[in-house]
Amino acid sequence: MEGSGQQSIGVPTPSAAQALPPDEGTSSALDGYDGAVRNGSAANYTYPFADVALLQVFKLLIIPCYALVVLVGVFGNYLLLYVICRTRKMHNVTNFFIGNLAFSDMLMCVTCVPFTLAYAFNPRGWVFGRYMCYLVFLIQPVTVYVSVFTLTAIAVDRYYATVHPLKKRISVAACAYVLTGIWLLSCGLVAPAVAHTYHVEFRDAGLTICEEFWLGQETERLAYAYATLLLTYVLPLSAVCVSYLCISVKLRNCVAPGHRTRDQAEAQRARKRKTFRLVALLVAAFGACWLPIHVFNVLRDIDIRLINKRHFLLIQLLCHLCAMSSACCNPFLYAWLHDRFRTELRKMLTCHRRIGIRANHCATASVVL
């Protein structure tokens, strides 16, 4: 299959199985693809879409699930951003990282989900025009990579704050540079995929596709796909695991000074158990949400026949849905499970309800997530 790693973000249209040779007006940049289709060498491209009807059977189940992901992801991350922006005492490095994560997750929900569903279920394929084809296929993976790299930065930041508390933390200015670097790195990683993305119109069939084609560059495509897998999943997951493992060991070996009563000792053990559970949830959510789509892509790249052609698109959509669900998990794991954040949010909401009292006149507590 002449696809690439970016298809882990945007799902190809099932109508591509019905693809016909492009009209003579198609851009000359697609001459290679045009000839491949006419000669029948694009069979691998049409192979996975042999049974589009199966996807339609699950349409009424898939769309509500995606809608729930968008609703929870956008609303949860918006509240998180709102509290961070409106509470001055929360303006610290850790919360800026979390705010960047919330923003990228919101953008991921808005760009990845609606366009993916419309593209997958519309019999006319891509209906949003040439400009939106390239823009969406740029924004979709960028937001995903920003989320992954920001999760890694949060893990490393927490590692230094917990394991090396006496070391100087990075400044807000340095944090801004790190966040800028994360966005630039994400854009750089997406550049090869966007360079091989084409908007192709099959006018006779009333079909338009927006896909990546690496015709004659199979080695380069595989190198890019596996490099992306390494940089956006294997290394970040390793960094998150190591950071939180070190944090867990540090907390387990930490002993409070002085004589403690039985109640105090039990309270400390309860706090440690809660922290360990949270750490386990953070690592498990990161790995579990993104594992299915990466396994799917690896199997597709090794041999597309390893995936049943009748269930190909359905499996791809379900894996994509699992990956998008990370946008729902992050607000709860990085904010909602923290008592201080919930307290601050309740305080702000209560403050807004008071008649005649402006919200910014309410006292705020110091919150560090």
TrEMBL record:
Residues 1-27 are annotated as: Disordered. InterPro entries: GPCR_Rhodpsn, GPCR_Rhodpsn_7TM, Prolrel_pep_rcpt. SUPFAM superfamilies: Family A G protein-coupled receptor-like. Its main location: membrane. Residues 76-334 form the G-protein coupled receptors family 1 profile domain. Residues 1-10 have a biased composition (Polar residues). This is Prolactin-releasing peptide receptor. It comes from Alosa alosa (allis shad). The lineage of its organism: Eukaryota, Metazoa, Chordata, Craniata, Vertebrata.
